[in-house]
Amino acid sequence: MSLTEKPEPLPSAVMSDAVLDTLVPSFPAGAVDELRSQVHGPVYTAGDDGMAAEVATWNVAIQHTPAVAVGATCAEDVAAAVSWAVAHDLRVAVQATGHGPVSNAAGSLMITTRRMQGTSIDPDRRVARVEAGVKWKKVLEAAADHGLTGLCGSTSDVGVVGYTLGGGMGSLGRRFGFAADHVQAVEIVTADGRLRRASADSEPELFWAVRGGKGNFGIVTAIEIDLVPVGSLYAGGIFFTADDAPALLHRFRQWAPTLPEEVGTSIAIMRMPPLEELPPPLRGQTVVHLRYAYSGTDHAEAEKLLSPMKIAGTIVMGYVGPIRTDEMDSIHMDPVDPMPAWEKGLLLGELPAEAVDALLAAAGPQVEIPIIMAEIRLMGGALARPPKVPNAVAGRSGAFAVEVVGPAIPELAHVVPMIGKGVLGALAPWRAPETMVNFLGEVTGPEEVAAAYLPETIERLRAIKAQLDPAGVFSFGYAI
Questions:
Q1: Are 307 and 404 in contact (CB under 8 A)?
Q2: Which of 367, 431, 360, 359 is nearest to 400 (CA)?
């Protein structure tokens, strides 16, 4: 099949466990021993001691039940596992940290990559090579010693590879663009078991697709990314009283678009849990959290730019000031410990007063709903511009990103998604034509994933998928 032909729809990324179990073929006795002889890492089958720990997720709302799990230690392990899975008619799933809110990879061969921790920094070229299991924290700490940093998101506890392949939008995005825009090369095992190197000069179609087409074309074993020359920030977060939410959100929608590209910012309505580890002013309270990051060198200017928001409400607590780039977690203060989470987002083409009123009516402090966070994040700047080397990232049409997060506990399993989707639905009149893949959260299947992209982008992605993976070996997660 050529790259211009449109393939038939692939199997759904979201199926019931019962349906998936019927799709899992049996394999002959001794086959797993053969696999064990081909890889360096551990191999588990369903029911083995250690299987549950091997495939455990950070987002504990998801519990994977693969037929086989391989703890890969290197690219050769990944290639051997993929080849074995294809030979035994098993589909392949992959997991690094388990942050992604994806469906159960039931009946699969799951490759876990957390043991692949190779990281190297070339300060002269401003490039980092990172293996599949590495979290952003390790890269930020290594780069900071050279006055450099990577384009990390709201937390450094997530994996570099998965975050980047889904686009990657962090505090420095308005100045430098999406993380995927700064990928120099990927090393990837495709469905034929080959380890390939894709870059602008080698396998350019695959290189275009994998940057934004997250997980559809193979398993990325290592990635080379640009580092940017930012050694410190003027950044942090401020918590305001919930009563000031209308004033703060309306001020934010007017203030944020006036900011220079050196500033990244978001504002969130937060319903804080009554946890002892939280400061007393936040414990069990609903607050408004302003996040701010200025990557320029003029700290007086940074404070001047921030001042209109500081006087828009009553401050409960917070800090905005000089920080190192490996301290960026202090901006969003995302949780680190594993937790059950449901999340979903969309992008807005504009944020008029009516949109803010709609969000406040659906998720404001006065509403009794089990939503932990409803965030508005400023986009634009370099996020709206095409990269030097084109890629498949969706989202450049967005002016703002909106994300909602709720607890994915059994008692609220049906309530939280319904309410969360209702909050986003209230903003539908202002929705942008694209959605960042990393903001999709829970999906109903490939058609919802496809709708995140512009029509011409998804058509090209599906054609490449049909050429490289016609049997749908990689059809978990955000499958197209």
A1: no
A2: 431
Strand intervals (E) in 251-311: 263-271, 286-294
What's the length of the chain?
A: 480
Report the b/e string of 212-240 with b at 16+ CB within 10 A. Answer: bbbbbbbbbbbbbbbbbebebbbbbbbbb
Nearest to 219 by CA among 393, 100, 94, 42: 94
Pairing of strands 68-71, 109-112: parallel
Q: Tell me, what's the pLDDT at 22?
A: 42
Which positions ≥6 away from 300 have C-beta within 8 Å?
Answer: none
- 45-to-36, 225, 272, 358, 459 alpha-carbon distances in Å: 11, 35, 40, 49, 37
Q: What are the tens digits of pLDDT across the range 175-186?
A: 999 999 999 999
pTM of this structure? 0.93
How far apart are alpha carbons 332 and 60 in whole angstroms? 21
Cα dihedral sign, 324-327-333-334:
positive
Residues 6+ apart with CB under 8 A from 355: 253, 348, 427, 429, 430
Which amino acid is present at 456? E
User: Is 325 in a helix, a strand, or coil?
Assistant: helix
Rounded CA-CA distance 404/427 in Å is 12
